[in-house]
Design brief:
The chain has 335 residues and is an all-beta fold. Helix content is 0%, strand content 41%. The chain is built from no helices and 29 strands. The strands form eight sheets. Strands 3-2-1-29 form a four-stranded antiparallel beta sheet, with no helix packed on it. β23 and β24 form a beta hairpin. 52% of the residues are buried.
Length: 335
């Protein structure tokens, strides 16, 4: 599969969702069924059907079953809430986690759960801090599922630390001592050694006991830029990690850093110059682990065809990007 034979989805602030059918060369807005100028902060692709996508905006949760040609709101308690994160739990036996379990995080911080693909919803009892000076309201920025036991899930809150669930999101409790900051941006799990990583505004932190205790890696002293945002793992390569960094939020410049040893050490990736702001989002897909897309928060798009070692800037730019995803083109769509 070449880089042009994929669907690329770009979620923006104030411009809705955009889709490319040629790997990012050209784009068209694809928001039928949604507010055209909505704020898209979360995208999730169904692991078994790339035509099925979930999208979170300030109007609630939306689902497409035709590759984003059309959208329909998932009627739920999420209607009218600002969604920041979506997790489709990995498929597992019914005794472990229902194959259609969906977790959604909002701003102000709340967690919602569906065990039947969005037909019914519950709101687990969890006491997350709702307000925060400076950003007004906290938000659930990240979910991370254990790769072997989907009952174990972590949630990251900006700004309220890390929460742990042992029952696939039905109940939660705060965990973690030793974090460099409670400002959690992203979580990633490295199977080799059982390392859980948390990116924050001032460092990457690692836990060897599933989030109970943390050790900062002091990356501010080792990488060129001191502010850290999202991480990504090339599919099928659990020891490889990518990290978006910048000088501040949103910042005036940014880089991608790369680790080949589960986060123990990091080096800047090869980029065509620094970006115009903090590198914020990544998109990976198991159909091609080498093909990865990334974006700066202030609208620049980048593509890597070597697993994140080097990057090419795409011509199209947007105002503000907060979510990315890509899927393979169907055979009938390929030219």
């Amino acid at each position: 599969m070449n880089a042009q034979s994929v669907r690329l989805y770009v979620g923006t602030i104030g411009e809705g969702l955009w889709r490319s059918l040629d790997g990012g060369e050209t784009f068209a807005r694809t928001s039928s069924g949604m507010f055209l100028e909505c704020h898209v902060r979360a995208l999730a692709v169904h692991p078994r059907d790339p035509r099925v996508l979930y999208l979170g905006s300030e109007l609630g949760l939306f689902r497409s079953t035709d590759g984003a040609d059309t959208w329909k709101r998932v009627e739920s308690p999420l209607n009218g809430l600002q969604i920041w994160s979506i997790l489709l739990l990995p498929a597992a036996p019914e005794t472990i986690a229902a194959p259609e379990t969906i977790l959604v995080g909002t701003c102000p911080s709340r967690v919602f759960r569906s065990a039947d693909g969005g037909s019914t919803w519950t709101e687990p009892l969890v006491h997350m801090r709702p307000d925060c000076p400076g950003i007004i309201s906290t938000r659930v920025t990240a979910f991370c599922a254990h790769p072997v036991d989907p009952r174990t899930v972590w949630a990251g809150v900006e700004i309220d630390g890390v929460y742990l669930s042992r029952d696939a999101g039905q109940s939660w409790r705060p965990v973690g001592t030793g974090l460099s900051s409670q400002d959690i941006h992203c979580l990633a799990y490295v199977s080799d050694g059982g390392r859980l990583l948390a990116s924050t505004n001032n460092d990457i932190n690692v836990s060897l006991d599933e989030g109970q205790t943390w050790q900062p890696l002091q990356l501010r002293e080792k990488l060129p830029l001191p502010y850290f945002r999202n991480m990504a793992q090339p599919c099928g390569r659990p020891n490889e990690l990518l990290l978006g960094s910048g000088d501040s939020p949103p910042g005036t410049t940014g880089l991608v850093a790369r680790s080949l040893n589960g986060g123990a050490s990091w080096q800047p990736a090869r980029m065509p110059g620094r970006s115009n702001s903090t590198m914020w989002n990544f998109a990976v897909n198991p159909a091609n682990p080498d093909l990865i897309f990334a974006s700066s928060v202030s609208g620049q798009l980048y593509r890597s065809t070597d697993g994140g070692a080097s990057w090419q800037k795409l011509a199209r730019e947007f105002g503000e990007i907060r979510a990315l995803a890509w899927t393979p083109l169907a055979a009938s769509e390929r030219t």
